[in-house]
């Protein structure tokens, strides 16, 4: 298994011989329509020339279903998406879109099972997707949730080999954590006993503007999480990739323990 962090929530996952592009923001600016409140731009655009076998979208918000990026990608690439993100890619004219609701699964090329589970709440009524990916030949599993909201349903799939989820909190005054990492990452690691955990929803090669940026505060560090894992007798390795680095994860086979 190879993982490449492309900054923020964007990942390239290579699993079971498939190249999966997750929540890509690769070109252009990121805006939610109120630039005075928040706007972001990449220091380095990351056009991917290699073949992409699948696009996986967890949410329909612009930082997950990023319109400028999706407009540039080949519209014949298959897409698996939450119901909210499905509307985005269908409106753009993507030709092979699979919508997954919570609890539904999709088998891709007879090699990879993708299971949608409850993820991040968006507003009072909408809950977006998290995903559990399973390599059918080896039973290796990877779990992705970009905001740190983990459904207790996950416990039935333990152990899970790799987690991609926030590992620090991102907070706003009076609101609290809008990205949940510190306690949330420890809790889900206790449930799933992963071999590796990698942070997402972090920023590296991007610049941020707007009123909100002045009040956002990151709480916690990777070292804090390692200490928490040690105190709780977790052997999970906390990795800290840099944008563009392609990491090879050498996983130990735990099929017999599942």
From TrEMBL:
InterPro entries: RibonucZ/Hydroxyglut_hydro. GO terms for molecular function: hydrolase activity. The keyword Hydrolase applies. The keyword Iron does not apply. Keywords: Hydrolase. PANTHER family: METALLO-HYDROLASE/OXIDOREDUCTASE SUPERFAMILY PROTEIN, METALLO-HYDROLASE_OXIDOREDUCTASE SUPERFAMILY PROTEIN. This is Zn-dependent hydrolase. It comes from Nostoc piscinale CENA21.
């Amino acid at each position: 298994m190879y993982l490449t962090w492309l900054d923020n929530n964007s990942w390239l996952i290579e699993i079971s011989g498939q190249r999966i592009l997750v929540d890509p923001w690769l070109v252009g600016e990121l805006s939610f329509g109120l630039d005075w409140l928040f706007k972001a731009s990449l220091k380095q655009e990351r056009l991917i020339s290699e073949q992409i076998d699948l696009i996986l979208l967890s949410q329909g918000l612009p930082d997950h279903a990023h319109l400028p990026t999706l407009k540039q990608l080949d519209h014949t690439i298959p897409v698996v998406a939450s119901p909210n993100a499905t509307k985005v890619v269908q409106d753009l004219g993507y030709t092979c879109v699979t919508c997954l609701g919570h609890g539904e699964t999709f088998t891709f090329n007879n090699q990879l099972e993708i299971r949608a589970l409850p993820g991040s709440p968006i507003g009072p009524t909408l809950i977006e997707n998290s995903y559990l990916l399973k390599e059918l030949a080896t039973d290796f599993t990877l779990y992705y949730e970009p905001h740190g909201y983990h459904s207790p349903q996950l416990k039935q799939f333990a152990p899970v080999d790799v987690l991609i989820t926030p590992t620090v909190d991102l907070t706003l005054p009076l609101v609290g954590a809008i990205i949940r990492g510190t306690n949330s990452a420890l809790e889900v690691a206790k449930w799933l006993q992963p071999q590796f955990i990698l942070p997402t929803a972090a920023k590296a090669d991007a610049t941020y503007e707007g009123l909100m940026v002045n009040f956002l505060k990151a709480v916690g560090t990777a070292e804090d999480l390692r200490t928490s894992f040690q105190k709780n007798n977790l052997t999970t390795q906390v990795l800290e990739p840099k944008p563009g680095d392609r990491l090879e994860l050498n996983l130990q086979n735990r099929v017999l323990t599942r």
